[in-house]
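Backbone geometry:
***
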Amino acid sequence: MQCRPDCGACCIAPSINSPIPDMPNGKPAGVRCVQLLDDFKCAIFGKPERPAFCLSLQPSEEMCGNEAIGQSREYAIAWLSKLEALTKPN
């Protein structure tokens, strides 16, 4: 599965605890990564400074939804936000 165009949900919804260029402390959940470009593509995609967390995320119907049945970018943000809440340390 390929990423949905104009989405960026995986660069907004989850927290990232490792350094990101220009975000040395990572980013909290729900905050747009500074590396997410206006066209919703990652400025550091394929570069060594891309966090391991980002490398581990792969588009899937479970995460991204299915546009054929009306699931959109908002679905992906909601799914990732729910996963973030369920896995947040106490």
User: Anything to note?
Assistant: The chain has one domain: 9-87. The chain has a mean pLDDT of 92. The two ends are 33 Å apart (CA to CA). Helices lie at 52-56, 61-64, 73-87.
